[in-house]
Design brief:
Shape: globular
CATH class of the largest domain: Alpha Beta
Distance between the termini: 53 Å
Structural class: alpha/beta
CATH topology of the largest domain: Rossmann fold
Strand content: 5-15%
Helix content: 40-55%
CATH architecture of the largest domain: 3-Layer(aba) Sandwich
Number of domains: 3
Length: 458
């Protein structure tokens, strides 16, 4: 044991403070009988405890703390967690930081709930689109995300974890402007453009004497190690996979702000465009703003050009670009809240969960980025734009996996870069976009000499 690690037992606070003896026994039995589940719990718990990490190399992080153990102790009135060889940064004077403690038990709550109540429940057919949407709803309801009857106010903020300081400061300013208008923030829970808006909104909420501001973080087991939850998150939710995480963003939110980012942000942009371009969603209002400081203008010009070239003008018309004007970006989003409210009220849709938004099953089914699957993607301009957007989303999802997810990184080490094939009209603008990400150092924070995990062919 070194000074960098700590052993401690901790009790739950609010998230899992009241359990029956049967529930406690089930938790302990499940953990002891399922090696895969136990390892998922351990890794996600480590990511929460590693809050503030400057590395996005999940494989290296897991190797650094390979001796970390998570033990669930059974008690008559609940559970207690045993942490062995835990990162010392999660503690102050030997006591765990309260926010980290809450997020740690959120991990236990969500992963065990998904395993016992979703995956093993015959009521949920995860090969059915309707059932997947229902499963996402139940996971979020169990995490107490919904505020029934509350007016639309939850804004998703997407953007890179590897961004420049001036971009990070701008995300805080936009978050501040959103917070002044009483809007709440939901992000991917990590650092960079996920942390900045929450930090800005928290200051604005304090000024407006809003004492119940919401800073929600959605993550999933494969990404959480590379994007540890930032300390402002006050409601963390673990979804089963990236597709259900992305659907949770869309179903819960009332608008989206996109900041500069890399392949992961491109994946998110293509996901929402794949939904908004579907004919069934053409009349549904959903404010979408791309924004950044003046120095990021070229970034958005490249993104805009890529979308226009591959998906067409209809896709470009679904968002607005705002450069260096946080107040304007927040105003556009805030004005959109009334449109969202009016539409959902007129169509009897819930304010807290967007049931009417149609999400194709292809955007819900987990895409496993193997070399074979990446090589077989249909990237041709003769398919409907919403289908092309979905396939491009899969391509970028594979690049994210090859960059920072443990299994993806290992696959690249074992078999070399992914080969992505497509029509020249798609692959040329994609090449240009990815080259710009590499030149601007948007792919990874943990290396200055980025080696692409992909080869593009046409």
């Amino acid at each position: 044991m070194t000074d960098s690690y700590i052993d401690i037992d901790i009790s739950p606070d609010q998230v899992m403070s009241i359990l029956s003896q049967q529930e406690v026994r089930a938790l302990c039995d499940t953990q002891s009988s399922n090696d895969e589940l136990r390892e998922t719990l351990r890794r996600c718990a480590l990511a929460v405890l590693n809050c503030g990490s400057q590395s996005d190399d999940s494989k290296a992080i897991l190797q650094q703390y390979k001796s970390f153990e998570l033990i669930i102790h059974e008690r008559n009135r609940g559970i207690k967690l045993g942490l062995r060889n835990a990162p010392q940064g999660a503690f102050v004077d030997g006591k765990i930081i309260k926010g980290i403690q809450e997020n740690l038990f959120a991990v236990i709550r969500d992963i065990l709930y998904i395993n016992s109540e979703i995956k093993q429940n015959r009521l949920f057919d995860l090969d059915s689109s309707e059932s997947i949407t229902s499963a996402v709803f139940h996971i979020l309801r169990n995490a107490r995300i919904f505020k029934s009857g509350a007016d639309p106010s939850l804004i998703v903020c997407w953007g890179g974890h590897s961004i420049n300081r001036y971009e990070y400061d701008y995300t805080k300013e936009v978050g501040y402007q959103l917070g002044l208008r009483g809007l709440n923030i939901c992000t991917g829970c990590g650092p960079g453009a996920m942390k900045g808006p929450m930090k800005g909104a928290a200051i604005a909420h304090a000024k407006q004497r809003i004492n119940n501001g919401r800073y929600i973080g959605f993550t999933e087991p494969e990404i959480i190690a590379a994007e540890s939850p930032n300390p402002i998150v006050n409601n963390l939710v673990i979804l089963p996979d990236i597709e259900k995480r992305l659907e949770a963003f869309i179903r819960c939110s009332h608008g989206i702000v996109v900041f500069p980012g890399g392949a992961g942000t491109a994946e998110e942009i293509l996901y929402i465009l794949g939904i908004l371009l579907h004919p069934k969603n053409k009349d549904i209002p959903f404010p979408l703003v791309f924004t950044g400081p003046e120095k990021s203008r070229a970034y958005f010009e490249t993104i805009h050009q890529f979308i226009g070239t591959t998906l067409g003008e209809a896709a470009q018309n679904r968002y607005k670009i705002v450069i260096n004007d946080a107040n304007c970006a927040a105003q556009i989003i805030n004005q959109g809240m009334q449109q969202v409210r009016d539409y959902r009220k007129a169509h009897s849709d819930a304010f807290h969960y967007n049931w009417l938004m149609h999400v194709e099953q292809g955007l819900q089914t987990p895409f496993i980025p193997t070399h074979a699957n990446m090589a077989q993607l249909n990237l041709h301009p003769d398919i409907p734009s919403h289908e092309l957007a979905a396939n491009l989303r899969r391509a970028f999802s594979g690049i994210v996996a090859g960059n920072i997810k443990e299994q993806g990184v290992q696959a690249i080490e074992d078999f070399g870069p992914f080969e992505i094939n497509g029509n020249r009209k798609i692959m040329d603008p994609m090449t240009h976009l990815l080259q710009s990400f590499v030149a601007q150092k948007r792919m990874k924070v943990s290396t200055s000499d980025y080696q692409p995990c992909y080869i593009l062919k046409h």
